[in-house]
Structures are given as structure tokens and as C-alpha cells.
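tool=predict chain=A
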Amino acid sequence: MKPRLRFAPSPSGYLHIGGARTALFNWLWARNQGGLFVVRVEDTDQERSSLDSVKAILDAMRWLGIDWDEGPEVGGPEKYGSYFQSERKAIYREHTERLIGSGHAYRCYCTKEELDRAREELKARNPKAQFVYPGTCRYRKDQPDLPYVVRFKSPQEGSTDFVDKVFGPITTPNKAQQDFVLVRTDGYPLYNLAATIDDHLMDITLVVRGRDHIGNTPQQVLLYRALGWDPPEFAHLPMMLSPKGEKLSKRHASVSVDEYRERGYPPAGVLNYIVRFGWSSGDQEIFSRDELVAKFGWDHVNKSDGKFDEKKFADVAFEHLKRPELTPLADYAKNVRPFLAERGLASPADADLTAAIPGVRERARSYKDAASDLDFYFRDPPELDPKAREKLLGPEAAARLVEFAQSLEGLEPWDAPALEAHARQWCEARGLAVKDVAQPARVALTGRSASPPLFDVMVVLGKARSLARLRRAPSLIPA
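tool=predict ok
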């Protein structure tokens, strides 16, 4: 069987950057091995789950370029059933009854008040003690008319062992386990039961998730064995932490994938940064998507947690924006358009936009920055920086630009070398330095004192627009 990996988000909000990293590692291994990547929605918490969250998570994954072979909006083989856990209740009920019938689980009628009282009594005796369910209902006779949860009857001797592909052999003494809850009083399964059943019935061969789930794994291994199934392989990933080593939250960084999209980061740059939390390939820092797929392997995944570095994140994203082999010109143009629209600019022609981008991509650190740098190309007249006008565009300089524009009327070809050569000759004939014309021309053409190379700007603007902007220079002088 081909390797089958899954990402199983809980749709209670946005796609967290840590969740995106988990999805990425699953996706990379599936693609590296020629396997299948499955998305399964863990929406059994009906109060917190919503279809809007499902859509937001799937949209974020699609933006990142993490595609899935089975799951919502894609479907899959009929034998696997629904990819929404809320639609699989009958499956969970069937297997719960199997566990009860085989003596591996039981109905627990203890009320919340009874359990809270037991916790308080323990705390009074030993404030540092961890409450463990005492097995009150292990051998209690069924009373179907009372509300109940279903608990797993954990073995009290021996140990539960598994080998993690990242952390190696892990042994948990069974006496350290308690009779954990499988099904709530509302009939919905908890994570351990639903994930175990679904991973088996969907033929998942490797379960990859964050290290914070490693404590769940012995319980799931017990469930696999109780149901007569072989467990899949497991791989737990080091955590993404704040700069202070705390759990990553909004206090420390943007933790929603959507926030990085809204801030104008390239999706491949986001993937490149988050893959480095726990994985490396020699000294290489910057990877294309294809390189990540080709090079990814578990032998290069380490155990150490990583601290989120917002500056490093931005630097990695910038490398992707700068390099055409990582962000092709067509992709750059497509991704910068929404940010141009945010600025109220009409959608430029493809040819005009792709001609303008090379002049800004060396300095624009995001698509949002790029849209700002490109603004003057597509806004007529360009927004004028008052400080640039005051410093560089006086009456004499403006009048000179009108003369310069007239001299350009018959220039052919309209390209950067020809424009530069003409400007030098024209200035030399008048005893001027090129900067005496170039600096005020930059303000008239772009509204700014800094821009891409002047003659490249004039080529992108074209002859008619360049001459029109130069000729209107006197109107920019305050009355």
C-alpha cells in the first residue's frame, strides 16, 4: 500500500502557523514517497466547530500550496466514508460497543459533582497530587437510564511501548495511565477514540503531529490493541515556541496563516521558514517547494523545539521574493495584484505589471511593500512627496524638465541605454551634471526622491506618459 498520511484540523478558528507546519510535514513525506495526503476534519466539538472555520483552514492550505488527495471538496474512496468526524458517529458508536462488549471499556456514571468533590478531597490531603480517576465504575452494573461517559479500562500492569520516528523508543508504565474517557455524555467521542478509529479505517500508515500529542499516543496504542488492530507508525514534531520559550501565541507573533497572507508574504517563503522548525538539510537555508519534497526525510528531523524569530521569517520570505527561480515573475504579478487593488489602483495590464516588477523586487520585502513601490507606475498623477518636491523640484529645475521633454520627442529607440546616452549629451551641451536633470526628473516621474533606476522607470512608463509627467513639472511648484 502507498503511504497514507493525514492532517486532521479542528475547525474552531484559523489555521495556526503550527498547524500549517504539521500539515506541511505530512504533505512533504506523502509527496516524497509518492503516497497520498488526506485531510480529515475533527469537528466533534460541535460548540466550537463551524463550516466557516473549515473553509478558512482549507483556503489557507490552498494558498500555501498544500494540496490534498482525499478530504473535503475532493472526496475519496467510498470505503473510507465521510472526512468529517461529525458525520461518523455511527462508526464510533459501533466500535465503542465492541470495546464495552469485550471488557475493554465501561460506562461510567460518576457525576461531575462527585469527581470535583474527589479532586478537592485529594487536594486537601496533598496539594501537589495529580488526580487520577479511581475506577469507581469499573465493575459497576450498567444503568442505561442514567447519563454516562464511556471510559477505557486501562491495564494496570506492564507497559505500553511504541517507536517514534523522531524520538525513538518510548515506554509508558501502564500504572501511570488512568481509565481515560472515550465518549462524552452527549455521545460524541473524544480525540483519542475518534482519531484511533479513523486512522485505522482510513488506512493511515504514519501519524505525524506535534510533540504536545506524544502523551496521547500510549492511550491510542492501547485502543489499537484492544480493537485487535496494528498501530500505524508515529512521528512527533518539536514545538514552535515564542522567543521566550513559551507556547507560541498572538502575544509573540502572527500565528494565523491568513495574517501572513494579508501582510503580503509569499506562500513558499512561509513554508520555507516553518519547515526549518525541526528539519534541516546541511547548511542550506533557502529551498524551493520542489527541493523540500525531494530532500525531506525523517533522518533530518530533530527533537529540539525552535523559537519563532519574526525577523528571520521576514528575511526568508524576502529571499523568495527577490529570486525569480523561487518566485517566478508571473506568480509575483498574480500575488501583488490584490495589494495594488487595496491601494485603489485599477488592475494593470499583464505586460505593464511584469515590466515594472523587476525594478522593485530587489528591495520590496513583501507584496504589500511591492505594491507601495509600484504605485507611481499605475497612478496618474503619481502621489507627490512634499519633501522631495521642496528639495529637488524648484522653478528652474521644472522649466529645465520641460526643455528636456521636448528634446526627447524624436528619440528612438525608447530604451534605457538610448535614454541615458541622450541625457548625458543633453546635459553636457548645457554644462550640467546628469544629476541636475535626473533628480528633479525622478520627482516629476514618480513623485518620490527614491525609485528604481530613472531610465528603467521611463521605459516602463512609456514615451507618452514619461513626457507628459515631465511637462507637468511646473504645475507641481507651489504658487
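Residues 17-32 form the longest helix (16 residues). The chain has a mean pLDDT of 94.
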